[in-house]
Write a structure and sequence with these properties.
This protein is of the alpha+beta class and about 375 residues long. It is about 20% helix and about 20% strand. The protein folds into two domains: about 230 residues, no CATH class; about 110 residues, no CATH class. The chain is globular, with a radius of gyration of 21 Å.
């Protein structure tokens, strides 16, 4: 490892450390009036990062039945085109927007969310590879927007019996046993605390991640059972203003899933990079010479043959080296669990499907 490499890694670690700060949502952190501020409406959640956080998930009112994971009727379930890699966990998502408020819709880029918007993501881990329906409840994360577009996070760790979940006071890792054909495997899972959320949910990316036109431009069941494009559903419910036009849906961007053979290999690879890298790697974002956002044309992303800041001692390393995965820094940092891994937080395993997708795309590029 070169001296320059060590120095750059140290600087990156310092930047992360500075961004951590003190946990913002610890119970009893503040005795000011703002600490007692609660969101209006049916959910028992703090309106700002200094507010009191319920000790149990059951106290938040998010689910009317924890056993069946039935959400409060005011919540709207949704899904996205491409999910961030979360160590193989399954996810469910819901959103709540304060009555009378709406999200500022934009066909491209990031949306603007009104203060008090609540986004919930629930994680289950399959624990028997021969029976996908057998899962363990891991955690439920909540992101709440504040005035000015800032966000803060709350996370709850489910108990082993699955009857309730406890507010995560400090981050921790846990081994999750998974039954495989050749025996029991052990998977690691990282449970984040509030300060971890702010490392990814940065204001530069809009604070809220994964809720945009390119992600929601797909069909999903409506509350009354119809299959409809989510942008239209959200528009009908008054969540989006201006309201998306049905005739314009085909012109809006849409991320491509890794297994979507109807989309090009390039679209699928760049969609993967958008979701897993683009929230940080964009203009004025994390150190790096490239822009991972899908909506930036490939010719302007500085990805293919792009220069690198850290070469990992690879000969003529590039961000993406056409037909040469071994010199492609993005692939090398996604395909590792060493301290040079990317993303650096809450990733305890390698996304084999994502690595295979990027490798195939790199090998298809003209030198």
């Amino acid at each position: 490892m070169t001296r320059t490499h060590n120095r750059l890694l140290s600087l990156a670690g310092l930047a992360i450390a500075i961004g951590l700060g003190a946990p913002a949502c610890d119970r009893g952190e503040s005795s000011s009036d703002s600490a007692s501020a609660r969101l209006p409406g049916p959910l028992n959640l703090p309106a700002n990062r200094n507010g009191q956080v319920p000790a149990l998930l059951s106290e938040t009112g998010i689910f009317t039945d924890l056993q069946t994971l039935t959400p409060h009727p005011a919540l709207l379930a949704y899904d996205i085109n491409v999910s961030f890699w979360s160590d193989g966990a399954d996810k469910k998502r819901w959103i709540w927007v304060p009555p009378g408020r709406s999200i500022r819709f934009s066909p491209t880029g990031e949306w603007e969310f009104p203060a008090g918007t609540v986004l919930i993501k629930h994680f289950d881990m399959p624990t028997d590879l021969s029976r996908p329906e057998v899962k363990r409840r891991l955690e439920t994360r909540i992101v709440i927007t504040e005035a000015g577009g800032e966000v803060f996070g709350i996370a709850y760790k489910w108990r082993d019996d699955g009857r309730d979940a406890d507010y995560i006071v400090r981050s921790l890792r846990e081994e999750i046993p998974v039954q495989a054909p050749d025996g029991v495997q052990s998977r690691k899972w990282y449970f984040p605390h509030a300060h971890d959320c702010l490392q990814c949910h940065i204001s530069l990316a809009g604070g809220v991640l994964g809720v945009s036109t390119r992600q929601l431009n797909c069909d999903f069941p409506t509350p009354d059972g119809r299959l409809q494009n989510q942008l239209l559903t959200w528009g009908e419910r008054g969540l989006l203003k201006p309201r998306p036009r049905p005739e314009a849906l085909s012109t809006y961007p849409r991320l491509a899933a890794a297994h979507d053979s109807s989309r090009s290999l390039e679209d699928r690879a760049r969609s993967y990079l958008d979701v897993n890298c683009g929230y940080c790697h964009r203009p004025d974002g994390a150190p790096g010479e490239f822009d991972a956002r899908y909506e930036t044309p490939l010719s302007k992303q500085n990805l293919v043959n792009g220069p690198v800041l850290i070469d990992l001692d690879l000969d003529h390393a590039r961000t993406i080296a056409p037909r040469d995965p071994s010199r492609s820094l993005i692939l090398q940092r996604i395909d590792t669990l060493k301290r040079t891994k990317m993303p650096p937080l809450a990733r305890e395993s390698i996304d084999a499907e994502g690595v295979a997708l990027l490798r195939e795309w790199i090998e298809s590029l003209q030198p």
